[in-house]
Structure formats: C-alpha cells, structure tokens
Design a protein that fits this description.
Helix content: 25-40%
Largest sheet: 7 strands, parallel
Number of helices: 13
Strand content: 15-25%
Order of helices and strands: EHEHHEHEHHEEEEHEEHEHEEHEHHH
Shape: globular
CATH architecture: 3-Layer(aba) Sandwich
Structural class: alpha/beta
Number of strands: 14
Oligomer: single chain
CATH class: Alpha Beta
CATH topology: Rossmann fold
Number of domains: 1
Distance between the termini: 49 Å
C-alpha cells in the first residue's frame, strides 16, 4: 500500500513514516519545514536534536534498508500539490501537515491568518488533487478533540441524533472551538465532509487528543528520534510537564487545573492511525474517530508526572499559575471513543509506563531543555 504523509517532518509524521515503513508500507512524504521555523520563532527547539529530513531518511535507509521518499512540496501551492499527487498516486493520504498550536494562532492577526490560510488552503488543495488524480484514495486527516470544546453533554464521534419540534435527524455535533487554530480544524472538517458528499471521496477525520511520549518503537536509534517540543507554544502539556520535571522547574498547570481532556501515547496514536489506514470507509463516506485512551485533569497529570519523576531521582513540585487562555477550568467531559475499539484498538502503554520510557531518554538532553527553559513560560494570552 502506497501511503503519502503530508507533514512527514513533524512529531507524528516522522514517527508514522518509520512505523509504517518497518511494516512494509510504501511510504512517501512531503514537508515544507514550517514546524522547525515556527518553533525557532518562539525561541525554542526540539529537546531531542533532530537532523534534516534528508539526513533522517538517509540514516533510516542505511539502518533498516527501507526507503522513504520525501519532498519539500508545500500543499498550499496548488500546482505543487497536483504534481506530487501525479508522481506518487497514493492509495492513502495521511494529512498531518498543519500549523498545530493554539497559542501560536493567538499571537496576533499575522499568526491567526497564517494558521487558517495554511491549514484550510492546504486541506482544500489535497481534496481537489484527490478528486482529479486519485479519487479512490483514502484521506486520513488529523483533526482535534478541541473542535468540540467542553459541552455539558456527552460527546459523540462526529454525529448525533437530535429531535426538535417533533422531527428527528442525524446531524454533525455542534463545535465550540477555543482558538483560531481549533477553528481552522472545524473548517477543515466541514470542507472534507462536503467533498466526500459531493465528489464521492472517502475520509477518516481523526479527532485526536494531546499525544505524549518520544518513541513508538523502543528499538529506534537515538539519532532517529522524533522531535519533542516542550515550550509553552508548541509543547503538549504532558511533554511540557516532563521537561519541567527534568530540569527542576515547577510543573505549571494553568488556573485551577481542572481542565479535562483525552490523551494517548505516541505508540497508541500510531496504532490508531494504522487501524484507520487498514480499514478504509466506503466511497462517499466521511467518518469521525475520537482518538484517545483516557481522560485526565491537568492537576492529575501533574501529580502523575511528579510521581514517576521521583523514581528517577527527581523531586519536582507543582505550582498552578494564572491561566493565559479563556476556557472552562472545571467542566463535564465524557467523549465517546468506541469506533477504534470496534476495529481492534487496545491501548498499549499507560501514562506512567510511557513516562518511564520518556524521562530517561530526555534526561540525556537536559542541557537542551535548560537552554530554552524561558520558552516554557506562557507568553501568549487569549485576552488583549
């Protein structure tokens, strides 16, 4: 099976490329390098030192004798996108190539407009290229659980049945995005749903919770590790807490710390995406998977990180700080996530087990985290 990964140089993209390559998939990928530039812009870098995409793929081939074919095609460029689709003719397109940070999108009009233009235009170009070049291909698109917000209702997987004034219908569950980034994902979802309905395309829209960890396969050589962002703009909360614990900085939950989300490990994210790839929808179907393992409150996450960190001789503390975001800090949260389980998904690692793998790896790069510790402070506020 020929898989095209858009955003192959990113945290999930590079991991997925290696994961699928080792399993016999024919892997192609493209990345315009924006993640590296954007992280540098906010004064940070990956805790794990990463070489160029060209060197990564070359080392992977040298070690595992498996080719990964990459390019720097920018999917916001229509002609480049069509050209690459004609070259690859993918059976599956895994779209991870978007600006992924809510704080980055809230830095100001330039960053909000960049986020929405990059994300929405890129997705639309992929949809048109699929329509005209590979209409039988399956789009696996990374969305976010943040599209739903935190309603005082159970959250279904994309759709729900509603009765209003004596009539019933199945409709898209209402979205309540919390940033310009999350709004770009909402627009993506509607554009993809429309394309499937209108052009008989097929797509899996993955509403994924925050991912944590640094390896999906413990045999991965250190020189091939994926990136690990820990700053206050691009670092997911567990990864940021882990980095803070390693350098002796207090773990900093925002506000009261009751914000609850669904999380999963890096290896389980890979397993879920493979299940989606291996079990495509039918022509014209737009389906939604809520992709996470367990839900945690932010304070609970901090306590769990502290507990495991102490096993490695660390002694972190917790210091709740002012919340730079506008969000509910105490709320109901109960999303469904049965569709992947019905396909055979079984969680691989608990949060604690993943931390026991991640912490000793990151301790080797303590100096890199220490050098950018100022970047972990929240500098982007939702209010003016």
């Amino acid at each position: 099976m020929r898989v095209l990964i858009v955003g192959i140089d990113g945290y999930l993209g590079w991991t997925l490329a290696m994961y699928l390559g080792k399993m016999g998939y024919e892997v192609y990928g493209t990345d315009n390098g924006s993640r590296r530039k954007n992280v540098e812009e906010v004064g940070s870098w990956s805790a794990t030192p990463i070489t160029s995409l060209v060197k990564r793929t070359s080392m992977f081939h040298d070690i595992f004798k498996i080719p990964i074919i990459t390019s720097t095609v920018d999917v916001t460029n229509t002609d480049e996108t069509y050209g690459f689709f004609n070259f690859v003719e993918p059976h599956v397109v895994v779209h991870l190539g978007e600006q992924p940070s809510a704080p980055y999108s809230m830095m100001g009009p330039k960053h909000a407009n960049y986020t929405q233009t990059n994300n929405i235009v890129g997705t639309n170009n992929i949809l048109f290229a699929m329509r005209d070049v590979t209409p039988e291909a399956h789009l696996v698109k990374l969305g976010t659980m943040g599209e739903y917000g935190t309603p005082n209702l159970d959250i279904p997987e994309g759709f729900f049945e509603i009765e209003y004034r004596g009539r019933k219908d199945t409709m898209v569950f209402p979205k309540n995005a919390g940033s310009f980034y999350h709004l770009s994902k909402v627009h993506d979802s509607e554009n993809i749903r429309f394309a499937c309905k209108t052009w008989d395309l097929r797509s899996t829209d993955i509403m994924q919770g925050p991912v944590y960890g640094v390896v999906a396969d413990e045999t991965t050589p250190f020189e091939l590790l994926t990136r690990f962002d820990f700053d206050g703009v691009f670092g997911t909360v567990i990864n940021r807490f882990t980095a803070q614990a390693i350098i002796g900085e207090p773990l900093t939950p925002y506000g009261s710390g009751g914000q609850t989300r669904g999380y999963l490990s890096l290896v389980d994210s890979m397993k879920c995406m493979k299940l989606a790839i291996d079990n495509p929808p039918f022509s014209g179907e737009y389906r939604v998977f809520n992709q996470f393992d367990r839900t945690y409150g932010i304070n609970d996450l901090a306590r769990r990180v502290c507990k495991v960190a102490k096993e490695f001789g660390l002694n972190p503390t917790i210091d709740n700080i002012e919340n730079p975001r506008i969000e509910k800090e105490e709320h109901y949260y109960n999303p469904d996530h049965s569709k992947l389980e019905n396909l055979g998904y079984i969680p691989t690692r608990s949060l604690e087990d993943e931390l026991r793998i991640t912490i000793p790896i990151l301790m080797k790069y303590k100096d890199r985290i220490e050098a950018k510790k100022e970047a972990m402070k929240p500098k982007v506020k939702w209010s003016k």
